[in-house]
Amino acid sequence: SVMKRAVSGVQPTGSVHLGNYLGAIKNWVALQDTYETLFIIVDLHAITLPHDTQQLRKSTRDTAALYLACGVDISKASVFVQSHVRAHSELMFLLCSSTPIGWLQKMTQFKEKSRKEGGENASVSLLTYPVLMAADIVLYQTDFVPVGEDQKQHLELARDLAQRVNNLYGGRKWKKLGGRGGSIFKIPEPLIPQVGARVMSLTDGLSKMSKSAPSDQSRINLLDSKDLIADKIKRCKTDSFAGLEFDNAERPECNNLLSVYQIVSGKTKEEVMEECKDMSWGTFKPLLADALIEHLNPIQIRYQEITEDRAYLNKVLSEGADRATEIADATLHNLHQAMGF
Ligand code: ADP
Ligand code: NA
């Protein structure tokens, strides 16, 4: 393929909010038009912390369904479950032997998460999490990885590790073992996403909309019913200024709600200003609620269809895994040869 390849890992949470959708998922899905894209539901990563087994199975399928509902097009992109492609676990072990323990112990996320797990009681896989992530990426000779701020350090480690393995086992040494020589892995580049919208909480307008915020009232979940969306918007925090405006630092709620309206209605900022500048909250809120409902409704309908059709989802995931296995096995074959197996 002449298209550059992008790989995106998605945790199997099964439920996402408007912030995840407008800030990340929408942009990731758009990558499929420019790159050969692989969407991996990373269920192996989900077991690095104690997990609920029933929940994991359900969330894995629900997450796949959600991405498909959000527009992942299987004629352009592959969607698959990490554990369905055995090469991920195997490559992780092979990479571990080239990974200094110190590289992993200094990872910020390991330090934070292992502290929460009580230090010495944290699992070994929490420590090796970034090696698994490196495997997810380099298995596919990936050109680009869309990463948020929190994954930058892990991507840097993946690059260092790929380079290290290339140096240790690639080139002339590999050729002597009958290989083609040169690099075993492509070195992946970060893909800094287009500025996604930063969606703020509906209850304070100052903190970001988040799944960990205690109040469900503070967020719109992608799968919320029409009535619930209308109710949350009706009750969301506003102010007592006259008219509506963007970019007034004293009016964070106003800026947030107008921005959400702009994106989901597909209008320009100027068009929204023209339409809403003289509105009261009482006029604007139902308009926003309707636009949100109209935007999310097709996603929800599609999600229902996909989750109800087990055979279809199985087929998508199995085709995705087949495609991924083909690429992954070729990489593993090279590494085996180069490592002297
Ligand atoms: P949460 O903060 O709800 O736990 P995650 O940390 O799992 O969400 O983030 C998943 C993706 O969604 C990341 O790419 C993150 O940048 C994006 N994201 C999360 N919350 C928001 C938000 N309120 N606005 C925009 N993007 C967001
Ligand atoms: Na978070």
Please outline what is shown here:
With 341 residues, the protein is mainly alpha-helical. 55% of the residues lie in helices and 7% in strands.
Please provide a written account of the structure.
The chain has 14 helices and 5 strands. With 341 residues, the protein is mostly helical. The chain folds into 2 domains: 222 residues, Rossmann fold; 88 residues, Tyrosyl-Transfer RNA Synthetase (Orthogonal Bundle), CATH 1.10.240. The strands form 2 sheets. It has a 3-stranded parallel β-sheet with strand order 1-2-3. Strand 1, helix 1 and strand 2 form a beta-alpha-beta unit. Helix 3 packs across helix 13 and helix 7 crosses helix 8. It is elongated and about 75 Å long. The two termini are 29 Å apart. The mean pLDDT is 95. Adenosine-5'-diphosphate (ADP) binds next to helix 1.
Which residue ranges are poorly predicted, with pLDDT under 50 across at least 5 consecutive positions?
Answer: none
Beta percentage is 5-15%
How much helix is in the residues?
40-55%
State the secondary-structure class.
Answer: mainly alpha
| Number of extended strands | 5
The sequence of SSEs as H and E is: EHEHHEHHHHEHHEHHHHH
Going across the biggest sheet, name each strand in turn.
1-2-3
Number of helices: 14
Please, what is the average pLDDT?
Answer: 95
Q: What name goes with the CATH superfamily of the largest domain?
A: HUPs
Quickly name the level 1 CATH class of the largest domain: Alpha Beta
EC number: 6.1.1.2
Subcellular location: Mitochondrion
Catalytic activity: tRNA(Trp) + L-tryptophan + ATP = L-tryptophyl-tRNA(Trp) + AMP + diphosphate + H(+)
Main location: mitochondrion
